[in-house]
Amino acid sequence: MNQEQWSAVDHYISQTVVPSDAALEAALEASSKAELPSIAVTPNQGKLLQIFARLVNASRILEIGTLGGYSTIWLARALAKDGKLISLEVNAKHTDVARANVARAGLSGNVEIRLGPALETLPKLAEERAGPFDLIFIDADKANIPEYFTWSLKLARHGSVIIVDNVVRKGAVLESNSSDVDVQGVRKLNEMLAKEKRVTATTIQTVGSKGYDGITIAFVN
Ligand SMILES: C[S@@+](CC[C@H](N)C(=O)[O-])C[C@H]1O[C@@H](n2cnc3c(N)ncnc32)[C@H](O)[C@@H]1O
Question: How many CB atoms lie within 10 A of CB 73?
Answer without folding.
Answer: 26
